[in-house]
Each structure stands twice: as structure tokens, then as C-alpha cells.
Amino acid sequence: MDLWASGAGKSAISRSVAERKDMKDMLCGFFAFSRNSSTRNTVDPLVPTLAYQLATYVHETKRLISDTIEDDPQIFSKSLEFQIQKLIVEPFENYLQKSNNDKARCMIIDGLDECQDPKVQRNIIHSIVENMSRSRIALRFIIFSRPELEIRATFKRTNISDYCTVLELDDRFKPDRDIELFLRDKFDEIKKTHDIFISWPEEWQIMKLIGKSSGQFIYPATVIKYIDNHRCDPVQQLERILDIDDSQTGNPYAEI
């Protein structure tokens, strides 16, 4: 089964999910498309990247992946469905059978809409679902994307929708609680790495950040990146955020 998450703030969420401590033993692959990068706006590096990461995270799959590539040097010129089958599904399936381990693993694909060709976007979804429907292994794909028409239509097809769960980050999605959990978790990490021993941040500061987020994860993700600067005092950085004037220098939104 695959999870498709669409809407604003999806990339911030995908990276937060990948970085969570409780994902350490679950994540076995992450790929982010980017329309502004010639190396990441096509499908070509998708399977090579995921296969390499699978071999890194699940060492028992490395030999079979390497042997498959050695036996078929042209495999990356073959269909995407075939590549996923031979370099991801079968090695993982083989690992599960030999280890008698049924613990679920997941791979994250971010920014599917930033892959240049809509036909390729559809093919990626189709190829993953076809493989997952045949194997039924404990491997999940989490796909983050803007809800482009072609992508939405593909996920609604009967042969696709039966194997997917869709989470739309639209007005019906109430993210404030998730944003609060994200902020508290990140502030705890910052306190540890910066040796902050006072009670910080104050409750009103967290609530104000949640309000400023307006339901968009990109805001708290950018704020945390701005605050977590080893050359600056996080307490002062937070105060600057809450008193921000967009005309000031050092604007934390510069990266957005």
C-alpha cells in the first residue's frame, strides 16, 4: 500500500518524517524530485538512488542488488516497473524470506509533480502499485506531491486507489496539532545541542508560532532552521522571529 500526501507544506512534512528518530529503523529510501535541478527533474536517478539506499539501510539486500546490476548492465534502460521489481522488490522480498523479518519499511518520494513529464509521473505511480500489488511485502511508499490534475486522476483509478491511502493537505486538514508537536520536538533538540537549561521556549511563544504558521508546515520548518544556527543564540533568534519586521536584515524567510 502507498500513501499519497498532497498540498502545501508537503516537502517540509516529507523531510520531517524522514528525520524523525522513530523512522530510523523504518526508512530505507528517500528521493526528492526538483524541477530546477537537471539531475533530479527526470525519472532516471529514481530507482538507482532508492536501490543504493536500500542496500545501505538493509545490508542483506546489497549482494542481490549488485549481482542483478552485474548480470544485466542495461537494467537502467529497461522499464521502470522492471527496475523496481528487480532492484527493490525482489531484493527486499529475498531479505524478508531469509531473515523471517516482517517489520515494515518505507521509502519516501517527495515532489512527484516536479518530475518534468506528466506521463512519467503516471508511470511512476503505476509501476510502484503494480509491484506492490503483486508482492504484498511489508514495504510502503510514501509519495508527496502537489495535487496536479494528472496525478490526482491517476490515484483515483480503481486499479490504483485500491492500494493507496490519500491524505490531502487542504482546508479540511487541521495541522495545528501536528505543527505544535513538530515545534516542541525540534525545540527539545535545540535545547540539547545548544546546552540551554532554562525553561524555553515559553508557552505563548509556541502558540504564537503556531498562529503565524497559518496551517503551513513551511513556516515552522523555516523558523526552526533559522533558530538552529550554531553561530547564534537560539533564544535571541526566536525573539527576533516573533518581533520580525520583513524589512529587517536577517529575514528568516529568505530561503522560501
Q: Can you describe this structure?
A:
The protein has a 5-stranded parallel beta sheet, with helices on both faces. Strand 3, helix 5 and strand 4 form a beta-alpha-beta unit. It is of the alpha/beta class and 256 residues long. The chain has 11 helices and 5 strands; from the N terminus they run βαβαααβαβααβαααα. Helix 2 runs parallel beside helix 4, helix 3 packs antiparallel against helix 4 and helix 4 packs parallel to helix 5.
Key terms:
five-stranded parallel β-sheet, alpha/beta, single chain, globular, 256 residues
Please summarize what this structure is.
This protein is an alpha/beta fold and 256 residues long.
Mean of residue pLDDT values: 85
Largest sheet: 5 strands, parallel
Helicity range: 40-55%
Pattern of helices and strands? EHEHHHEHEHHEHHHH
Strand runs, count: 5
- Which geometry do the CA atoms define? globular
Radius of gyration (CA) equals 21 Å
Distance between the termini: 32 Å
Sheet with most strands: strand arrangement: 2-3-4-1-5
Instruction: Give the class from helix and strand content and strand pairing.
Output: alpha/beta
Q: How many helical stretches?
A: 11
- Uncertain residue segments: none
Report strand %.
5-15%
Topology:
Blueprint: E1 2-7, H1 10-19, E2 27-32, H2 46-57, H3 62-71, H4 80-99, E3 105-110, H5 118-135, E4 139-145, H6 149-156, H7 158-161, E5 164-169, H8 176-193, H9 203-213, H10 218-227, H11 234-242
Parallel strand pairs: 1-4, 1-5, 2-3, 3-4
Helix pairs in contact: 2-4, 3-4, 4-5, 5-6, 8-9, 8-10
